[in-house]
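worker-03 picked up job from queue 'complexes'. Input manifest follows; two sequence lines, order preserved.
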Amino acid sequence: MTTPWHPDEDDARAIAVGSGILGTGGGGNPYLAYLRLRELLRRGARPQVIDVDDVPEDALVCGIGGMGAPTVGVERIAQGWEHSRAVDDLAAYAGSPIDYVASGEIGGGNAFAPLIVAAQSGRRAVDADGMGRAFPELQMSTFMMGGGPAVPGALHDPHGNSVIFHAAPDARWVERVGRAATVAMGGNASLALPLMSGARLRQCAIRRTLSLARAIGSAVLEARARHASTTEAVFGVVPDGRLLFEGKVVDVLRRTTGGFARGSLRLEGGGRALEIDFQNEYLIAREGGEVRVCVPDLICLVAQDTGEPVTTEVLRYGLRVAVLALPAPLELKRPEALAVVGPRAFGYEVDFAPLPGELLRTWRP
Amino acid sequence: MTTPWHPDEDDARAIAVGSGILGTGGGGNPYLAYLRLRELLRRGARPQVIDVDDVPEDALVCGIGGMGAPTVGVERIAQGWEHSRAVDDLAAYAGSPIDYVASGEIGGGNAFAPLIVAAQSGRRAVDADGMGRAFPELQMSTFMMGGGPAVPGALHDPHGNSVIFHAAPDARWVERVGRAATVAMGGNASLALPLMSGARLRQCAIRRTLSLARAIGSAVLEARARHASTTEAVFGVVPDGRLLFEGKVVDVLRRTTGGFARGSLRLEGGGRALEIDFQNEYLIAREGGEVRVCVPDLICLVAQDTGEPVTTEVLRYGLRVAVLALPAPLELKRPEALAVVGPRAFGYEVDFAPLPGELLRTWRP
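worker-03 finished. Artifact:
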């Protein structure tokens, strides 16, 4: 059992940087989510973060985050209460209070979803998530693996629409129907899903990832202040990480389609070139046609000077970036997980050749 | 209070014809729905139809029918239990039994939805519906008018997906989100919506329309057997109806798009030509550019020889048809209703010039 903590404004700023790096380009813009939490903190909210083991086994907990293309999330700002309303809707459906919330994905703005809910409603945020990074589709969450049901869940939009996912053959169907509903709702909405017991959360959660995001962000911000290497700062927290490339964005192809931001980019630097494909998140990096890193390992773009994460919706020509490669958490390298988050799940006919080590090696409780 | 009745195979055949005529081209293929009910009757089911006034004021009742394009409904046959499962889902959500079901629209195959549910689950079918005909969109139901909420409701598909509509700003939003979910589900699904009290049903239902469909169908089948005019037979039941046109289908433009079958057709006969637009249902009939009949009045195509209804998904070149014009039920001619079912609601810049009389003039209790 660890001591609960109460994120302050500095923690929030650090989480924005760390979750942006772990977001591998997706997960929603972390800066907007950070501003929302900061505003709640300034009004006196005191959200509490607790460890997975502090959630009672028979308590109800749900995943929480946004569904939709990050490009839409930036242009169409949420009202602010959607995450909490989605949890309220799911609790009303369940007929029982939901006192605990965990991020569906720690990557990007979705890291803040449980903190915002905790700040607004007094629920507690759990220091864990279902991806250890960000992924574009629902079935890619460990919350849905190992026989865990994808339903029930609630989708709540800024207009006040709310639908409950009552039954589904599997998580892919919830992804498909939920994505279509999200597009009809205007392109983004808040998703509280799945509803779990504390016992189930212990089986499926990737632990301490909110703490990890904060630690990565703190290290980057501190190094930036000292004019030290922000890249080395990340590797101080994730010692198995490595620097893959440094260079300039020379080409970006991006379109927002079917509720996703899809595309590719090309980097050049030091006489080399790196090409990266993305679907909300950076999926695969190739050099001279050869795969250097691919999902579920993390491909993280950061601004070369500041270490600030570069998400797929702000990519543009001329940005100077460093590309970090971080090995995936152990939970994503199991055969069951690779079937849904490995390169073939994204249509790439390559085998997953994992980077050595793992994201949370020095962070396991 | 009227005596409850138990539809037999003859009633079912009559309802298929009558609901097909009232469907004004849409509402789902009535013959497929008829076959499903006939099979249940042959296995010993004894569905009961009761009057609106026989539903206790505090009992729960819901609308029931299919959502999606009729063109899809013909090619992708439902499993058969979807309607009952949708009602089960809604009852589970409500935490109370739903013992009564009413057709969302009496037109087309949807007339059979409450009978199939009654045959499968022992619930009672109410002799009423929300349209007195068929319309392409949800907000066009009297169940949603006069301040009646569109939610909650349940959408259940043949794969076993089920979503609950928990909250919505209005019925148009449920239509929009539900239509997108239906398309993601493969193009058709069963919709149990809205959940109402018996007291609310008394306010908003169009009454005795299942009896009306049976009476129209019986009259047509009897006339057909006697080689008498099937058109005159319809007018025996709906004395305010009239024969608008007789002729041959010489052109059909139809596409299945966005969950609808949309298009237009041209008829020629006796030196005249009639043009009709449709969106699942026949909406507007013009002769020489002049509007002859338009929504909410009913434009009904029947085969010239047999009086069998011709739905928009079976339209083809060369069919010889009679076009009947039946005045809409009173409930659809109120200003509040015309705002959602009048010609302007479908994008036609014309005023509604009602046919004299009304559909149910001789059928009001």
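worker-03 released lock.
Chain A touches chain B through 27 residues (CB under 8 Å).
The CA atoms of residues 57 and 199 of chain A lie 4 Å apart.
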